[in-house]
Amino acid sequence: xKRWLGKAETAIGNHSDRLNAIxxxxxxxxxxxxxxxxxxxxxxxxxxxxAGRSDVRQPDVGAVLALAGQAAMExxxxxxxxxxxxFLCAAAEPLAGHPRLTSTLLAAALNRAxxxxxSALSDPVPGTMLxxxxxxxxxxxxxxxxxxxxxxxxxxxxxxxxAVEAALAAVIRTEGQLDALxxxxxxxxxxxxxxxxxxxxxxxxxxEELQSELLDGLHGYDVQDPHIHNDMPDDDGVEVMCTISLSxxxxxxxxxxxxxxxxxxxxxxxGAASDAEGNYRWRVHVHVPxxxxxxxxxxxxxxxxxxxxxELALPRDPEADPVxxxxxxx
Length: 330
Description:
With 330 residues, this protein is an alpha+beta fold. The protein has helices at 2-21, 32-46, 50-55, 61-74, 78-95, 103-120, 129-145, 153-177, 179-184, 189-206, 248-261, 291-301, and strands at residues 238-246, 263-269, 280-288, 305-311, 327-329. The model is unreliable at 315-330 (pLDDT under 50).
């Protein structure tokens, strides 16, 4: 798991410019690569700190991944980063207590992760990284079903090969699933990022190099291709994110009201335990025309932390602090 996330941090960092270049959905703000990189980096770094090493004393794949997922969730950036952190946290659950990954566990983890990611969004649509997650999960499950419980590394390798192959096919399909992508003649940026992350998992588990030819021919992804999002109109509004403790009822209320005033609403539970009052911690993400009504709404239901507000029309600086020149805490 540590090797996987370390590889993913490097790969997404190397590809962040091209991911930004084709980022036009849900808004053409050219930051998917940056957001995904910063989120993956948070997950990877959590496993290399003293706290990360001491929190996981036994060989437990699920515990390691849960720690990384929690860190990613707390520092998630944008739609892509938030969905990736949901993916990590959910994938950790079926792996809890297991010292190694098997084909069956991989299939269970990918399936749990894609279901949770789809449900985190208020208005999920195909043609995004969600479709890539789903395709990978289905392919891994199909291979595992034919292995008759084989828990060997060979069976795991077959499942990983199938997952990456299906993810690539899903990325290619994204162009025809969303009007904005079809018009621009590009594939989905978040989907490509998810494909890279899955190939990093395959590489880490099998001890092989990343498949350098994997992205060859993807529309809009060649180095010489232009930054597609630069030709798109600027998106008005801001992205608001925070972490907040809420009861299940208040969480449902917040989601409904955010849906009424904004778009790209993502809400996902952070951790499994509730506090003494029965509240759970949630990571909240929304795009709104103006931050103030959203912040007031959030504060009316609880006491949020790490509120960040970023202009959608401006690309993020990949090396900036979470609170930077175009994003500030409230």
